[in-house]
Amino acid sequence: MLTTAREGALAPLDARMQPSIGALGYDIAWPQASWNAGKHSGFVLPSWHKAKRPALSLHLRAGLRNIRRWPVGRASHRDHGPAPGERQAVPVPLPLETRIRVVSALCEGNSIRATARMIGVDKETVMALALRVGEGCARLHGRLMRDIAAHVVQVDEQWSFVQKKQSRVKPDEPEERGDAYLYVALDANTKLAISFHVGKRDDANTHLFITDLRSRLTVVPHITSDGWQSYPTAVAHSFKGAVDYGQCVKNFSRGGSQRPDYRYEPPRDPFITKKPIFGAPRDELLSTSYVERFNLTTRHTVGRTRRLCLAFSKTLRGHCAAVALGICYYNFVRLHGSLGTTPAVAARVVASPWTLAELVTAALAEGETAPPEPQPLKLQVRPGAEERPARELPGGRGFLRLV
Q1: pTM for the complete prediction?
Q2: Does residue 79 register a pLDDT over 50?
Q3: Which residues does 10 contact at the CB level (< 8 Å), separation at least 6?
């Protein structure tokens, strides 16, 4: 039974209030030193104290002023120490089963508030857990996605935003607000998300993304991108000729005669232009269909990237953590429909599909690791291609091949 301490005597709390207090997840601390004062600067009344209820005894009314809202698993942030004689309320960590339920709801595209309502935990607890697991997934991805023999790679960038749309951002607001593009490099054969990066759609972030992709590969890749102007320079700088690179550009019509649904279902009249940039890209491999399908999957599994909803991110750190969680869930846990297994198993990164419990446990235990160093790329025969004579050029400038 919950009790209050008043003048050295124990008085039982009103039995009618016990179920509601426990159900809302409040921890109760009764500081004796401040009891007679009737209030304490470190305590805040919960929102439900304003609801209509039967008249309460005087000592319970005074005790309600000392109820502190304490989300489970989250530390209290007070700017002063405990009062003399105060009984500290200790935050209780979430059980592993509850953590898995929270992460499972987030990986199915639910928002923070929806997850909190479904699981029955505080919103701040969901946000704190999502941040820890997401940042752990980013470190886990950085350690495991190395020495990947991806022969055909498709890259693309997916639009999302932080806090507000870019057109609404004022000059004096933080730079992280506005557009937040998700750069993704996908192995077309194993459907593995090799590399990803979140940032503005500009030269600097494009170079960071391509540099990270280069450091994770071991073979000369066939890369296809859209028509973003920063890609050719970034690919040339990172791969230095050891690449077959081309662009697949979709020319969407703009004008008053277009259909109302042109944004979501463009006409399939010839509107694709394929353009070789470096090396000897094959026309049949110049496509971004797989990575665009990955973008659709991401819109469903990462609620913060969904359009026309209220689940968007409020901070860049939280957005990056949510994206990392979604990509690790896609690579290690979610079975791919056409593969029958996970992309990480198809790419031989892990031996078997992971459970969500294994992903959460590994992410929370993952420490910091150094980023991968670029390794010399090997020229290997791609699946379905014929072996042709080739000779490596000096100075790491690529290969001289007969095509």
Answers
A1: 0.74
A2: no
A3: 3, 4
